[in-house]
Amino acid sequence: MSVQQPQSARLFISATKQNVGKTTTSIGLYALLRELGHQVHFIKPVGQRYVRREDVKADEDAVLIRDYFGQGGTLGDMSPVTVPRGFTEQYVFQRDRDAIYGAIDDAMSRIAPDVGVTLVEGTGHAGVGSIIDASNADVARHLGAKAIVIAGGGIGRSVDEICLNKALFEQAGVEVVGAILNKVRPDKYDKVKRAASQGLANAGVRCLGVVPYAPELTHPTVRQLSEELGFECVAGEQYMDARATNTIVAAMSPQNTIKYLNNGTFVIVPGDRVDNILVSIATHLVGKMSDERHVSGILLTGGMVPDETIRALMRESHVPVLLTDNDTFRAAARVERLTVKIGPSDREKVETACRMIKEYVDVDALLGGLGIQPG
């Protein structure tokens, strides 16, 4: 498929709630539309998760798109409004709608010229941002964008949540061109696709895609665990890009612990349980002999570090070892709750996201809904 005529459209990418695949969809669509020959632009008008880069506060997704795909423009324009802690409480008493939309308009004038497809990523469901006069529905209407809604993979609840968001968008005068179901369990994929697609059709919503769950998109690296949760690295810093595919709490006897040490296991262990620390290191070393990295990392809890003899083994084993003052239960709970965003260095995750959207989303139907006809 090729593009014959310069065309222009704005697509607002929203979701029914957090962590259902909005970023994954944005990445995949950005790559796929560029592959099809479209000029593609990206903006996150209102961002809630931000980092400080180049002397500006920029949403993490804007940083990802700019750094990975090399989109032109400044991070300030790609992420014109960020919401720091305390901003909402202050805003309700000192409302300034013009300042928010003025910043968005100025950024749009520079980031997205008349030609091309502009992907406008929202911050959650259609109503998020209402308290600062900038709900997703309001921003989409202001920008003249059409919307898609991303929902988690299911039937009843997913369709209900999509319909609720559709109603909010339509109340604001925004057309919803379709929905995407994401993270569908492989064993239920055919059932969900058949029933949810029909349920959406019954509600007047086009199903643009049903994307299966890809567990590799949820696995953090040991470095990300360290940075996000504030764990100190005490050994193996150069190996911290190993990916933690599963986690165990090694508080049982060594002969039982070893049963749970699979490929990519992140071991959470009290710092004084030298027996389980040594079992983890030994399993890792044996795994290396067969070209498998069985242990992705070790987290020592309770602020306890073994003596120098054990620390030397840690360093020689090339296992990244982290340290926290948290007790084992709290440390495990924090690791379990952590949701790690895809970053510019997560090349494997970005490539997976692009592949999933290309394979499972009907981009022709999406472009048709935007009024862009393939050549």
Please outline what is shown here.
By secondary structure, the protein is of the alpha/beta class. It has helices at 22-35, 60-69, 75-78, 87-93, 97-111, 136-143, 156-171, 189-202, 222-229, 254-257, 274-289, 308-317, 328-337, 347-360, 363-369; strands spanning 8-15, 40-43, 46-47, 50-53, 56-59, 81-82, 116-121, 146-152, 176-184, 207-212, 232-235, 246-249, 265-270, 295-301, 321-323. The chain folds into two domains: 8-217 and 341-369, P-loop containing nucleotide triphosphate hydrolases (Rossmann fold); 222-337, Udp-n-acetylmuramoylalanyl-d-glutamate--2,6- Diaminopimelate Ligase, Chain: A, domain 1, CATH 3.40.1390.20.
Task: Produce the secondary structure layout.
Layout: E1 8-15, H1 22-35, E2 40-43, E3 46-47, E4 50-53, E5 56-59, H2 60-69, H3 75-78, E6 81-82, H4 87-93, H5 97-111, E7 116-121, H6 136-143, E8 146-152, H7 156-171, E9 176-184, H8 189-202, E10 207-212, H9 222-229, E11 232-235, E12 246-249, H10 254-257, E13 265-270, H11 274-289, E14 295-301, H12 308-317, E15 321-323, H13 328-337, H14 347-360, H15 363-369
Parallel strand pairs: 1-7, 1-8, 2-7, 3-6, 8-9, 9-10, 12-13, 13-14, 14-15
Antiparallel strand pairs: 4-5, 11-15
Summarize this structure as a short list of keywords or feature phrases.
single chain, 375 residues, alpha/beta, Rossmann fold, Udp-n-acetylmuramoylalanyl-d-glutamate--2,6- Diaminopimelate Ligase, Chain: A, domain 1, six-stranded parallel β-sheet, five-stranded mixed β-sheet, 15 helices, 42% helix, globular
Describe this structure as you would to a colleague.
The chain is an alpha/beta fold. The chain contains 15 helices and 15 strands. It has helices at residues 22-35, 60-69, 75-78, 87-93, 97-111, 136-143, 156-171, 189-202, 222-229, 254-257, 274-289, 308-317, 328-337, 347-360, 363-369; strands spanning 8-15, 40-43, 46-47, 50-53, 56-59, 81-82, 116-121, 146-152, 176-184, 207-212, 232-235, 246-249, 265-270, 295-301, 321-323. It has a 6-stranded parallel β-sheet, sandwiched between helices. Helix 10 links the parallel strand 12 (246-249) and strand 13. The longest helix is centred in the middle third of the chain and has 16 residues, at 156-171. The N and C termini lie close together (6 Å).
